[in-house]
Design brief:
It is a single chain. The protein is built from nine helices and no strands. The chain is mainly alpha-helical. It is globular and about 80 Å long. The N and C termini lie far apart (92 Å).
Length: 235
């Protein structure tokens, strides 16, 4: 990758994707609330959906949480308890297991959406496109596992975490990604692209899932009875 492309994808592109992710989601919620849904096809055929959806959501939620914590947690915070190399091994085994579970679930969902005639006819192009992109992203993530195993000292993980933390604190440093192996780079770029496409796909229903957490901790609704002044008979 040339220096200019490296600078664009790892210093400029992340902020483009994040801006579209947040502003696009807000605009869609404000203008097109009737499209804010998961577009479930459960009524057409539920059998394969049950297995595929459960495996996919279990795996993807673990991966999202693991990537977020792994990349954005400063090294000094966990270094008294676990070394960078040990954290790398934990990420390989736990992430590999979750990635495989998610891959199986997503493959079932993708097969169902492509090869079931009724579901294919009722699917939007964006539904199929986002599933294909997620499937490719999972494949890339699984491809990175041998490279992560080769760098068991945790050095690559430390570089990726430093890059992500610099992005989060508005101190982008694309030079950090110069010596990173290509599967990690492609995986990161496609991951950012998913954030870019997020507001224009069915993935927006993830916001509703997060909102249910706040709903669970809502204050109690106070309901007071009010006596009605009903005139007596004969009054």
């Amino acid at each position: 990758m040339s220096a200019s492309l490296n600078q664009f994808f790892f210093a400029v592109y992340p902020y483009i994707c994040l801006a579209v992710f947040f502003m696009g989601s807000l605009a869609r919620f404000d203008r097109d609330q009737y499209t804010w849904k998961s577009d479930s096809s459960q009524l057409l055929r539920a059998g394969q959906l049950r297995w595929g959806s459960n495996l996919f959501h279990i795996g993807i939620l673990f991966l999202l949480f693991g990537h977020t914590v792994g990349l954005l947690t400063p090294h000094w915070l966990y270094s008294p308890f676990i070394s960078a190399g040990q954290k790398q091994l934990v990420a390989v085994f736990s992430g590999g297991t979750a990635g495989l579970i998610c891959f199986i679930g997503l493959s079932l969902l993708l097969h169902r959406r492509i090869f079931d005639p009724r579901i294919r006819l009722t699917s939007h192009r964006t539904d199929l496109a986002i599933l294909v992109i997620l499937w490719v992203q999972l494949c890339l993530g699984l491809v990175t596992l041998p490279f992560s195993w080769h760098h068991r000292d945790g050095g690559t993980m430390m570089v990726l975490a430093e890059w992500a933390q610099n992005i989060a604190t508005f101190r982008p440093d694309a030079a950090l990604m110069t010596g990173i192996d290509w599967p990690f780079k492609v995986h990161m770029v496609l991951g950012m692209t998913i954030f870019l496409l997020f507001p224009f796909s069915r993935l927006v229903h993830v916001w509703s899932g997060l909102a249910t957490v706040g709903y669970a901790f809502r204050p109690y609704q106070l309901v007071r009875s009010r006596r009605l002044n009903v005139p007596r008979r004969g009054a």
